[in-house]
């Protein structure tokens, strides 16, 4: 739609330097898409597609496979040295935009990068043609940019079709089979290409019996999904079960050091690549929440990952091995076990043992995608391993796409976190640096590969708005853009999304969307679990408040509230020792309640309700204040929407209205249950005398 502003332009696609024979199946498919996209643009917005030699306003040119980074390219990120380093360091794709004499030329070394360059022009609209002359090179910060679908082929009796999915059914499967009509999957791929995502894992990490067979019996059907994504340069990955050699292959063991097991995985991989030449690789959740893994054979996770890595290596494949490993059958009475410690304890000692084509995929926090938790210390502990950051675009713990909760600001904080330096240290190494191969002491192979990249659980389903809540689309958009440049400002990203989604949005609509969404993650935090303590959600589906819901369960997610205080003591001095997993300065910053940031206080410390925060109020008064404020902010969101709803299509207006009403109902429920719980526990009244039940 942004092209409307550039209507009437002449567009040319110059592919004269392309030797189709040099390209793989993926690139050849994308070549056709480029032509289609240009034709589509002129059909919608006017103009003409002309011969490349006819001096058009916009030329896209494929330069051939060598020389991805023209020497004269300047950075558009204001960080030219860093950008050049990045381009030199890893096999990153990217494109160059040259604007001279009113003519714009986009060049790239691969069709997929050229497509990304085209979408960049689309995003800029008229501005792509009217800015100052110059050369800009854009390359994605993360070489691997992936969305994981937790989709089941069958509808699972407890989890439904899409585990933690809040946007209807799967776009890939229906009624126990791959959908006959996969046109929506191709549209999805187009959406992904427009935000720069180029890998998708197509089934749940909890691999049930039916889904395990995607790897073998269903390969022709999986190949159809790959074919539907391919025209937009998106390649597929599969989640596989570590027990597959037994459950699918009939072997007596899945021991990763067993020769027959190794051979089984090699054969399985050979068959996959025969069916899908541009297949990406495997995703594995092992020894976690009931999934099988190498522990059953006394092997560790490097042994487990490497057997799959060996099988996929001849095909250039990857293994995304998840670090989400912990004991989910914990005894709640045992205060010495700390789930937060688990990933580090299992994985940090294995640094240097993983094959070069293994990516260890690490959840952003040590627990489980909570609205607020500390950054995982694993990200600072494995310089000789390709580490990927794992985020949830799907809003499991952030309102399940019934609540408006824009996650861009949060991801910006996570990506910008400086594990080895204080929060104020400008230019220090960040989490984004680590996962793009620029962490301190990174091994040469990690640097060469550009690290392990960024992955996230998708929020897309067969819902008519794709994401349930129309505003949840902004999260998908921001995620893709941040994989290209983790330093992008979340507010500016939201602005881009508004421009592309509501073309010609009035200033009032734009303001209202910012008013509703900019601070919505912090608003959500205010009316839910306080000060980083986490959970307090209803067990099972994880929606709505249940303060003690997980308190006496085996899941290892406790808050330990009693009449005197609340929080988890994770200090070295008196607690679980988890703070010791961080490098300085954080191991000390978090160790003392005097220096621990307020928002994480209860994640690291058990304190009395009367403990005074840096903000100057007591813990219990903070709970009351934030829960009242959170509801007031949702009330303001509802009012704000009513002022502008008439400006958007009725179906969008109505869906947002319905969701905001539910968000308000839910926020009130959270406020009243949390406030009442703490009033009853502490006996301390609200300083402002507001109603607590
Ligand atoms: C969470 C989520 C599960 C999921 C798991 C995972 O625990 O609730 O549904 O399987 O994360 O990341 O593997």
Q: Measured on Cα atoms, how large is the radius of gyration?
A: 25 Å
What ligands are attached or bound here?
alpha-D-glucopyranuronic acid
In which order are the strands of the major sheet placed? 8-13-14-15-16-17-18-19
Record field, number of beta strands: 21
Tell me, what's the shape? globular
Report the end-to-end length measured between terminal Cα atoms: 51 Å
**Mean pLDDT, as a whole number?**
92
CATH architecture of the largest domain: Alpha-Beta Barrel
Unreliable stretches (pLDDT < 50, length at least 5) are 1-5, 65-91
Content-based structural category: alpha/beta
Number of separate helices: 22
CATH superfamily annotation of the largest domain: Glycosidases
Counting structural domains, the number is 3
Oligomer: single chain
Fraction of residues in helix: 25-40%
Q: Would you state the CATH class of the largest domain?
A: Alpha Beta
Taken as a percent bin, the fraction of beta residues is 5-15%
CATH topology type of the largest domain: TIM Barrel
Sheet with the most strands? Answer: 8 strands, parallel, barrel
InterPro entries: A-glucoronidase_C_sf, GH, Glyco_hydro_67_C, Glyco_hydro_67_cat
Region (Disordered): 69-89
Domain Glycosyl hydrolase family 67 C-terminal: 467-690
Organism: Isoptericola jiangsuensis
């Amino acid at each position: 739609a942004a092209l409307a502003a550039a209507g009437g332009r002449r567009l040319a696609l110059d592919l004269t330097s392309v030797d189709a024979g040099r390209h793989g199946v993926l690139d050849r498919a994308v070549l056709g898409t480029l032509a289609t996209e240009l034709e589509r643009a002129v059909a919608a917005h006017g103009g003409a597609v002309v011969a490349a030699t006819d001096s058009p306003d916009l030329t896209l040119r494929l330069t051939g496979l060598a020389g991805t980074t023209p020497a004269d390219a300047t950075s558009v990120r204001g960080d030219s040295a860093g950008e050049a380093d990045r381009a030199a360091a890893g096999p990153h794709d990217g494109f160059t935009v040259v604007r001279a004499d009113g003519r714009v030329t986009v060049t790239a070394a691969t069709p997929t990068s050229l497509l990304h360059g085209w979408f960049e022009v689309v995003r800029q609209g008229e501005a792509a043609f009217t800015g100052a002359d110059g050369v800009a090179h854009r390359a994605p910060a993360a070489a691997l940019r992936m969305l994981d679908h937790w989709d089941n082929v069958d509808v699972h009796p407890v989890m439904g079709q899409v585990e933690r999915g809040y946007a209807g059914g799967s776009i890939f499967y229906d009624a126990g089979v791959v959908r006959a009509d996969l046109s929506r999957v191709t549209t999805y791929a187009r959406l992904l290409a427009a935000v720069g995502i180029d890998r998708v894992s197509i089934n749940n990490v909890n691999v049930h019996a039916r889904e395990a067979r995607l790897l073998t019996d269903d390969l022709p059907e999986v190949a159809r999904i790959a074919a539907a994504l391919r025209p937009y340069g998106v390649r597929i990955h599969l989640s596989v079960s570590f027990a597959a050699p037994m459950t699918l292959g009939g072997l007596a063991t899945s021991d990763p050091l067993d020769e027959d097991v190794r051979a089984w995985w090699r054969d399985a991989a050979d068959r996959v690549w025969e069916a899908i030449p541009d297949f990406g690789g495997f995703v594995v959740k092992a020894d976690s929440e009931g999934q099988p893994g190498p522990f059953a054979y006394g092997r560790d996770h490097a042994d487990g990952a490497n057997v799959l890595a060996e099988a996929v290596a001849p095909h250039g494949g990857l293994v995304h091995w998840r670090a989400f490993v912990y004991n989910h059958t914990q005894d709640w009475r045992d205060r010495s076990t700390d789930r937060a410690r688990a990933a580090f304890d299992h994985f940090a000692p294995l640094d240097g043992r993983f094959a070069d084509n293994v990516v260890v995929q690490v959840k952003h926090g040590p627990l489980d995608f909570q609205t607020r938790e500390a950054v995982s210390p694993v990200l600072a502990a494995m310089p000789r391993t390709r580490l990927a950051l794992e985020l949830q675009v799907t809003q499991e713990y952030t309102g399940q796409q019934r609540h408006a909760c824009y996650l861009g600001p949060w991801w910006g904080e996570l990506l910008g976190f400086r594990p080895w330096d204080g929060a104020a240290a400008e230019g220090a190494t960040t989490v984004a640096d680590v996962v793009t191969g620029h962490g301190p002491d990174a091994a040469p192979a990690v640097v060469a590969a550009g690290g392990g990249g960024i992955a996230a659980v998708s929020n897309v389903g067969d819902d008519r708005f794709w994401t349930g809540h129309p505003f949840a689309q902004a999260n998908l958009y921001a995620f893709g853009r941040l994989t290209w440049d983790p330093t992008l400002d979340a507010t500016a990203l939201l602005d881009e999304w508004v421009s592309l989604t509501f073309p010609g949005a009035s200033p009032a609509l734009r303001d209202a969307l910012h008013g509703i969404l900019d601070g919505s993650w912090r608003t959500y935090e205010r009316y839910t679990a306080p000060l980083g303590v986490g959970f307090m959600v209803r067990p099972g589906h994880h929606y709505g408040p249940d303060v003690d819901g997980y308190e006496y369960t085996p899941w290892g997610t406790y808050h330990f509230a009693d009449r005197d205080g609340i929080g988890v003591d994770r200090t070295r001095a008196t607690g679980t020792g988890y703070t010791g997993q961080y490098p300085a300065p954080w191991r000390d910053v978090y160790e003392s309640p005097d220096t621990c940031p307020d928002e994480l206080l209860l994640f690291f410390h058990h304190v009395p309700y009367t403990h005074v925060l840096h903000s100057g109020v007591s813990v219990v008064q903070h709970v009351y204040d934030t829960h009242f404020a959170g509801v007031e902010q949702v009330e303001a969101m509802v009012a704000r929407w009513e002022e502008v709803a008439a400006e958007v299509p009725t179906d969008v207006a109505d869906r947002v209205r319905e969701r905001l009403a539910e968000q308000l109902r839910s926020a009130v429920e959270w406020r009243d249950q949390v406030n009442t719980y703490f009033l009853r526990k502490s006996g301390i009244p609200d300083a402002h005398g507001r109603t607590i039940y």
